[in-house]
Amino acid sequence: MSDKVKEQGSIPVSKVQRAAKFISTGAKVGGNYVKHYAKKMVNPALNREELHQNNASDIYNSLSELKGSALKVAQMMSMDKNLLPRAYQDKFSMAQYTAPPLSYPLVVKTFQKHFQKTPEQLFDTFSRSAINAASIGQVHQATQGVKTFAVKIQYPGVGDSVSSDLKLVKPIALRLLNMNEQELNHYMQEVEERLLEETDYTLEIKRSREISESCSTIPNLRFPKYYDSLSSDRIITMDWLEGKHIKEWMETNPSQVQRNRIGQALWDFYHHQVHNLKQVHADPHPGNFIIQEDGTLGIIDFGCVKVIPEDFYKGYFSLIKKDLLIKEEELNQIFYDLEFISDKDSEEEKNYFKSIFSEMITLLGTPFHVEKFDFSNNEFFNEIFQLGDRIANDKMFKKSNQARGSRHGLYVNRTYFGIYNLLNQLKAEIVTTKPDWLI
Amino acid sequence: MDTAVEKKTGKKDYKKLILEGFISHVLEHGKEPTSIFKFAKDLKIKESDFYNYFTSFESIKTSIWVALFDETLRQLEEQEVYKEYAVREKFLSFLFTWVEELKKNRSYLLSLYGDKVATFKKLPGDTREFKEKFSDFASELIMEGKETQEIATRPLLTEKYDEALWLQVAFVFRYWLDDTSPRFEKTDAAIEKSVNFAFDLMGKSALDSFLDFAKFLYQTK
Question: Which residues, other chains included, contact A318 with Cβ-Cβ below 8 Å and sequence gap of 6+?
């Protein structure tokens, strides 16, 4: 279990092999638990951190050998920082950058199938190896005259493997996320829908255009142009955005003003999507944001877009009204609407979950309750982790085998955690705007 | 395919006529003609003329396989980038191109080999010459692979590698026949994954180091 990313040897072939891979992970994770408890008998002071570390490595190593949706799930788990202890996160964050590449002959073949031409015939230059690996595709750099393009190519057969991959991830997700099966199914369907959409490159181009056009008035944002004649349902050609990812950019010691500008652009981008368009780029992982030389924020990859239904939107964002926590009645209604509590709950459960969710909402809504919020404040994030940990370990919470929270919340939550997280990395101070109806 | 056949049979029209006649008979009737006599009659040629070019239906099928292979190689050589490929990529590229060639004749191949049991009986005979040619091609690749260290030299085993690659070709063919995914994407994935697997096995691995180590322990004891 070295820390280096191991070079991919072979990709497991059939579903049986994929399953075997997962089973071996499951077994290893199980083994880690056994080891942990054995050690703990000898040394009661041992903390769970080490156990998580072992689990995270095994799971990551296993997931990264499976392309496609499994990798996507790894990415997703790495996003939901509140759900995962820290050791998992660090390992999973790697999944956001590295994935094993496709061979060049297959790239050529894909081009020939869609354009009846090889990449060399279409472009002046075309990089032989992938510059970047996305979870369901990989990106090559190409040039034509003075123009540079990013060409995203989808792995063949990814769409077909989404459903079976998700079934395979389930046992691991169950254990990792401390959820029961019923709860998980409730969300899996939502995940499956999004993943299937993501394999539809034609839809992605359409959405990319719509959203980037609608956001073109927001200052300091840059979107790539998309080229229909060089795209198909398996290939997307767009402008190459030159620049740095947030982590690299932060190493160049940008000033507070620069950081705020990027952060604010990010915030405004999401504000506009959520409150005006009601559809949102739901994949705010660091790889999708590129900070350019001129201090603008480039945004790529509209594969994962969540359309927010109107009634969910109302309920969800009413929660950030500051005085709401006082009005018991209204709050109860919203909790019902968002499926946090239901009639199946006992009175005791209702009260327990209401108190938990109120606490969570107050905490997560904090940035909205002030004019300006300083996201460099690690204290705020620690509080979120702690609350997450505390809830996850609470007996009452574990015992309840009902799904909590509307499925629409899954991606909206993920988006907000993603933004908070990025803003935290940027150490930016943000004017946290709210839609008019909430002021 | 047409062009391939033409190339092979450019000298005489009869040969081309027989090959095309055979393919269209299979396409229309779903099986081989009943006899050479009947087949020759349908083509309006003398049975004895037929034997000037082919001795049996099997030899026709053989030459179709060879034509497919030759056409694949021709296309590979046309690709500029092919020469720069590593051996693994060359073999991948071969299979991808070959499958494209197969696609042009899918109905013909399905009629003759679609049935699993039939495939096992028929394939070895029909593809003998193709296999010989392929083995030459594979041996060249393996030689090159050994030079570039992509393929580890293992006594006894290495000589069997061309056989292993042939098995892979047979696997891809079978997989492709059964593939129902749009654009045969699953076949592409199967090729990619199986070739990577095969080349990883042939490359230097922990096993070699282990054997070397074991040998050392045994000899120095």
Answer: A324, A330, A334, A438
Cα radius of gyration rounded to whole Å, chain B: 21
Q: Look up residue A110 and give its two tokens.
A: 């894909």
CA distance B181 to B187: 8
Of A11-25, A186-200, A201-215, A229-243, which range is least confident? A11-25
**Cβ-Cβ contacts under 8 Å for A151 (sequence gap 6 or more):** A119, A123, A126, A139, A140, A141, A142, A230, A235, A236, A237
ipTM over 0.90: no
Contacts of B189 in chain A (CB under 8 A): 155-157
Under 8 Å between Cβ of A152 and A134: yes
A108 vs B185: CB contact, 8 Å cut-off? no
Does the global pTM surpass 0.80? Answer: no
Handedness of CA B100, B102, B108, B111 (dihedral sign): negative
pLDDT in tens, A384-397: 777 766 776 677 76
Q: What is the pLDDT of residues B33-48, one digit of tens each?
A: 989 999 998 888 888 8
| A157–B81 C-beta distance less than 8 A | no
- Give the chain B residue nearest A104 (alpha carbons): B89
Which residues, numbered 179 to 208 in chain B, qualify as contacts with chain A under a Cβ-Cβ cut-off of 8 Å? 181, 183, 185-186, 188-197, 200
| Residue A258 distance to chain B (closest CA, Å) | 45
Q: pLDDT digits over A370-421, tens only?
A: 889 999 888 888 887 777 667 766 777 666 656 667 778 777 877 887 788 8
Element (H, E) at A79: helix A69-79
Percent above pLDDT 70 for chain A: 68
CA–CA min distance B54, chain A (Å): 35
Three-state DSSP state, A151: strand
Distance from CA of A118 to the nearest CA of B (A): 9
Flag if B183 and A12 touch (Cβ within 8 Å).
no
Q: What pLDDT score does A323 carry? A: 63
Of A13, A108, A128, the CB nearest to B190: A13
Nearest to A103 among B81, B92, B197 (CB): B92
Strands, DSSP E only, in A211-355? 221-222, 235-239, 279-281, 289-291, 297-299, 305-307
Q: How far apart are CA A317 and CA A294, in angstroms?
A: 34
The residue written with tokens 């300083």 in the block is A374
Tokens of A12: 């497991």
β-sheet with A297-299: strand ranges across: A221-222, A297-299, A289-291
User: How far is the alpha carbon of B116 from chain A, nearest alpha carbon, in Å?
Assistant: 20
Quote the minimal CA–CA distance from A10 to chain B in Å.
Answer: 5
From the list A12, A109, A157, the residue facing B96 with the nearest CB is A109
Tens digit of each residue's pLDDT (9 = 90 or more) over A143-194: 999 999 999 998 877 777 777 767 766 776 666 555 567 766 777 777 778 8
Residues 6+ away with beta carbon under 8 Å from B7: B67, B70, B71
Structure tokens at A186: 């409730």
Q: Which of residues 115-174 of B touch A (CB under 8 A)?
A: none
The residue among B42, B40, B66 whose CA lies nearest residue B53 is B40
Put simply, the answer to whether A108 touches B194 (Cβ < 8 Å) is no
